[in-house]
């Protein structure tokens, strides 16, 4: 009755179904784990943004790698901006997705060490080889509040660290690179400024990271699991249809129908004349 399942066509179809089921289940768990990571990251961002600011020197030091648990921690730093060694970070977007540059200014602390401060976004110069017009940083001693961020690397950000750039232009915010350029100790990571607000609102301060959206990962996970559940159901439907078609063909060849299908009434018997 089901010997057709041993045919080459049906063996291949069955093997494909058997492969698809675990693959779709695994894809569902992959999306589910992405959902869990997104939820955990949102919670981390929310907690760190709500925490009271602490001096940046409590969380980082020269050569320190900022751990993920300290990302977006609110910190303060008091010192003097070193605008002579200010650089811009190329190919960055603002909240409106406009491409420009970030202004990266060293802040020399009272103890002589330096923390890099991302003062915000400005439009790039018309000529990529030219240094843009950067709004001046506050003069004298200033206390900056912001979010602590980890050093950017090509592997983590996907941004290629190009060489041969024009003077005072970089691709990545990296304390190690800037320490080598400045020739002095630079605290690991950098500070993303949130206060004080610049005069004229420029540079544009970087907005808070999104920590409300969870994306569609959970919906995708459920979708993959439904697909996995649908494969065996579809296989059974195809098998029953194939069986019915073969019985119909065989009945037509012998002059007999395939007989009533499931749930169909038996034909009424005719009374003798």
Automatic annotation (TrEMBL):
The record's comment on protein family reads:
Belongs to the SURF1 family.
Note whether Transmembrane occurs among the keywords.
Answer: yes
Please give the start and end residues of each transmembrane region: 12-32
**Which source organism does the UniProt entry give?**
Streptomyces gobitricini
* PROSITE patterns hit by this protein: SURF1 (PS50895)
- This protein's name: SURF1-like protein
The organism's superkingdom is given as: Bacteria
Q: Which UniProt keywords apply?
A: Cell membrane, Membrane, Transmembrane, Transmembrane helix
Q: Name one Pfam family in it.
A: SURF1
Protein topology in the membrane: Multi-pass membrane protein
Q: What segment(s) does the record annotate as region Disordered?
A: 246-273
Q: What is its main location?
A: membrane
Compartment(s) where it occurs, according to its Swiss-Prot or TrEMBL record: Cell membrane; Membrane
């Amino acid at each position: 009755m089901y010997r057709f399942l041993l045919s080459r066509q049906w063996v291949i179809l069955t093997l494909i179904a058997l492969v698809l089921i675990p693959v779709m289940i695994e894809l569902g768990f992959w999306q589910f784990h992405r959902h869990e990571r997104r939820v955990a990251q949102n919670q981390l961002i929310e907690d760190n943004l709500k925490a009271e600011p602490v001096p940046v020197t409590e969380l980082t030091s020269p050569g320190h790698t900022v751990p993920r648990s300290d990302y977006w921690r609110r910190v303060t730093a008091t010192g003097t901006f070193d605008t002579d060694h200010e650089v811009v970070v190329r190919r960055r977007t603002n909240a409106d997705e406009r491409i420009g540059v970030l202004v990266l200014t060293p802040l020399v602390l009272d103890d002589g060490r330096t923390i890099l401060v991302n003062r915000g976004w400005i439009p790039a110069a018309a000529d990529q080889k030219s240094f843009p017009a950067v709004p001046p940083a506050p003069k004298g001693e200033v206390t900056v509040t912001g979010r602590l961020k980890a050093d950017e690397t090509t592997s983590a950000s996907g941004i290629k660290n190009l060489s041969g750039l024009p003077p005072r232009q970089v691709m990545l915010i990296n304390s190690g690179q800037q320490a080598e350029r400045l020739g002095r100790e630079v605290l690991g990571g950098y500070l993303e400024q949130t206060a004080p607000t610049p005069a004229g609102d420029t540079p544009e301060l970087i907005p808070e990271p999104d920590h409300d959206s969870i994306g569609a990962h959970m919906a995708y996970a459920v979708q993959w699991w439904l697909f996995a559940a649908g494969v065996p159901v579809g296989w059974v439907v195809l098998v029953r249809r194939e069986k019915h078609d073969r019985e119909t063909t065989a009945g037509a060849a012998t002059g007999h129908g395939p007989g009533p299908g499931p749930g169909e009434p038996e034909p009424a018997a005719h009374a003798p004349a």
